[in-house]
Design goal:
By secondary structure, the protein is of the alpha/beta class. The protein has 5 helices and 8 strands; from the N terminus they run ββαββαβαβαββα. Helices cover 35% and strands 23% of the residues. The strands form 2 sheets. It has a 4-stranded mixed beta sheet. It has a 4-stranded mixed beta sheet with strand order 5-6-8-7. Strand 1 and strand 2 form a beta hairpin. It starts with 46 loop residues before the first strand and ends in a 10-residue tail after the last helix.
């Protein structure tokens, strides 16, 4: 049977096999993903600035000597500052380092997923006790990094007086001015009035630092002074 001149026969593709006699590398897995570190034989420069496994500066040395030292300790030579002149490398357990980094990233993602929007509901005629309790909870949510949706619920003829709800929202903002910022201004939403607060971390940190500074200044001058609260 004659084959068609326009037809080409292809040999079936065989599964890839390692050539006989080629030993599998005993090196640890090294950086192949963009943005990863260069490790061990991937470091191509002749000289580096070395930091040993204990964090001590070992000065400028040849890459070959540093790599030999790392291998003698059963550790890796990792390039941590490739743009420096010469590049800075550190001796470490790269596998453990990557595992720790992955765990930190996982924990960071978990925390970011847990941070969401909470909701706190008030009534226009809420009493002082309930107002304080609910507002403390709002402050707690903000301190945990959550945003908080404040909802004023109107019933019956209360919806004809939105200014009552606005007064409640203004009191909340005034009470939490040091830890909150308004991310969505008050607006009417059906029979409710809503507002969204977000954590004001910068202000909270500054206030804590200022308070700490004041305490440090006052403590040495009056360590035994007793302050009595006015009745």
């Amino acid at each position: 049977m004659k084959s068609d001149p326009g037809f080409q026969e292809f040999a079936p593709r065989l599964p890839w096999r390692r050539p006989q006699g080629a030993a599998k590398s005993k090196e640890r897995d090294i950086a192949t993903v963009p943005g990863d570190h260069r490790v061990n034989d991937r470091i191509r420069v002749d000289t580096i600035r070395l930091i040993d496994q204990d964090g001590n500066q070992r000065g400028v040395t040849s890459t070959r000597e540093a790599l030999a030292l790392a291998r003698s300790l059963d550790l890796d030579l990792v390039e941590i500052a490739p743009t420096a002149s010469p590049p800075v490398c550190r001796i470490m357990d790269y596998g453990k380092f990557k595992f720790d980094e992955a765990q930190k990233a996982k924990e960071s993602r978990r925390k970011s997923l847990n941070v969401g929007v909470k909701e706190m509901k008030y009534r226009p005629k809420i009493g002082p006790g309930d107002f304080d309790t609910k507002t403390r909870l709002v402050e707690k949510f903000l301190g945990e990094g959550h945003k908080v949706k404040i909802t004023i619920m109107f019933r019956g003829r209360e919806s004809a007086h939105p200014e009552l709800g606005k007064k409640i929202l203004d009191r909340i903002v005034e009470r939490l001015t040091d830890v909150a910022k308004v991310e969505a201004a008050a607006k009417i939403d059906g029979r409710n009035m809503i507002m969204v607060l977000g954590p004001e971390k910068k202000n909270r940190t500054k206030i804590a630092e200022d308070a700490k500074s004041v305490l440090q200044e006052v403590a040495p001058t009056a360590p035994t002074e007793t302050i009595q609260q006015e009745g």
